[in-house]
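Much of our argument rests on the idea that a fold can be written as discrete symbols. In the encoding step, the backbone of a single protein was reduced to a row of integers, each denoting a local shape. We regard such an encoding as a compact summary of how the chain folds. The record that follows shows the chain in one-letter code together with its fold in token form:
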Amino acid sequence: MRSGINILIASSVALVLLPGLAAYAAPPDQKDLKDVLHQLDLAASGFRSTAADVEYDNVQTDPIYNKDIDRGIVYYKRDGRSFQMAVHFREEAVGVEKNKPVQYKPEPKDLIYSAGKVTLYQADKVYVKDAAKFESYLLLGFGASGSELAAKWDIAYLGPETLTDGKTSVKTEKLELVAKDQDVRKMIPKVTIWIDAARAVSLKQIFDLGQGQSKTCYYSNIKLNPTLADSDFIIKTGSKTQIMR
């Protein structure tokens, strides 16, 4: 699997396409891209925060198949121009084989975006990278309007599709996104998302990371505009923690 500090940026962008509250709905079976973007324009004014359970399936197909899974909880908070993101992983499955039971083990690690920096804490080491240039991509769907989305991505509307969220079938709108910024496009050539237009939330996202790698994100137990503590966006370290830049 691709490694190194640069994967923090790609992974961070790949966590952040979960929209806020919906305030507009087009008639059933008559939506198009304009309707979806208009819905996000209206939703942006009511967005403050989001919390959700999340699963990330990281897959490599070239040169050999490999799949790792991370599970935890994700938080997003936007206050005016200030934006923060935190993912607190709690367990993982490494080397998952096709058609075999998944075995999880505890593996705490934290990924934070705040004040223009991406920070990853794992195994008592903290990795830090400047990422202010990418903030407008990190907040996609988390308080960003449809106009902001269209300004950064070339968007194709792929039509409706029904997904299962637990025991409930949910009609979603499928969008394909290609970044207009060449630097972002090199890391993430394409993104496909499935948006529940009734609630304006993303149930599933697939990020093409290039070089035979992809990340599929699943969100559940989504809470819109919860009160989030400042501590949710702080990495707790010890006296032996090493800072890696």
DSSP finds five helices and twelve strands in the chain. The first helix runs from residue 6 to 13.
